[in-house]
Amino acid sequence: MSITTFQPTKIKKYARLFIMSQDNCILRELNLKDKNIHFTDNEAGEWNYFDYRGRGDKRHKCLIYTANLTYSVSRCSDCGFRDCVEHWGWTSTEMRLTGTSLWDVRLALRKQRFHCKNCGNTFTAASSDFEKNCQISRNTKVIVKQNLNEDMMTEKTVAKHLHISPNSVQRIEYDAIYEGGQYKYQYNFKQQLPEAISMDEFRSANDQFSFIWCDATSIKQFEVLPNRLTKTIKQYFLGFSLANRKRVKHVVMDMNAQYASFIKFLFPNAEIIIDGFHIAQRIGNALDSVRKNIQKRIDDKQNNRAYKIMKSQWKIFHMMYEDLEKTKPYYMRGINEYLTQEQAIGIRLSTKYPEFGQVWTAYQEIMKAMHNKDLSGFEDIITHYTIMGNDMDSAISTFAKNYKGIQNSITSNYSNGRVEGMNHKIKQLKRNSCGYKNMAHLLWRIRQIF
Ligand SMILES: [Zn+2]
């Protein structure tokens, strides 16, 4: 630019543009949005610098930016009069940010103070990036919640990762369930109950059991209760209107006599469905317990082929007979022979333990009836079952007691799959943070992670 074309106004304009774009760059880098924050450089012309913060063990290097927060105010916030507000000095605070760098990023912010000539009121400039009386930026709070609930990180890890104290993380996360230090979480009784409800329980804080229900077709709707006492569950569901409770047509659960006792009372139109997985599990356990009993009774364990097969190849006894490999032999560990799966079963059944053969047959028949949705076949097995004097008897008698629920399970497509999946994730959450002591906190986090 030659001297003849020197235009002071234009230079001023370019300088302003330069400063603004500089501000915008830094704002973006620091995850801030407020255009009223104007960054300042030091004598060396640098926009940030390193300094140390904290005492003792906690002393660490921080990346510090300096900025002024100011804007023009046309009206007093108190009396509302126009053109009576004057600048009234500055007040300094240090804000905590989450920038794109791994450093503990701080913002040394000078906030403009204002004074009203009319009413004498003084107030400080506010920023949309920070809450009043809080040094942690709004954006950091969002990231805290994301880290905790989407990534299932522990409170401690999040605190370390974002350079804030674990107490701050707790305050941010559990802000919603406390009001003035008092626990205030309210169940949502306005929601419409789904047609099919899935019920289960899980181990929660302090090794207690807690109750969980969810919509059997999605996990969008669910609730967790601190314990599984009949009183608690009844009280909770009675919070819903009768018309709402009448909407529930199916209740899926495991073979739990406690729940069965109040389902009809709470949900007059509902039928109980026993979860198919639990039926299979119960009868599988019976098969295993009989097998283990026989194993114990075998004296010459070293040379007994049946024992070796029962011990090492127990999985094939749980398979459906149709699914067994009948032609291709393979090397079986434990017994060290080439056998087909059918032959392995045959060795077991042809030996002198007919009891196991009977139990295995009963197991096969029940599984087959369930698989084929064969109601009359199932009824046949239950009614014509002969007492064998082992664990299978109690399994069958449990089935007889829950007969209606099992019948519904065979004919319907509902299962406890969703709620079991949720339980799995809850277990993960607990494992991540090595258990929970505070029940309210655990339940709150469960509500957040789904
Ligand atoms: Zn005023």
TrEMBL record:
This is ISL3 family transposase. It comes from Periweissella cryptocerci. Residues 197-446 form the Transposase IS204/IS1001/IS1096/IS1165 DDE domain. It holds the Pfam family DDE_Tnp_ISL3.
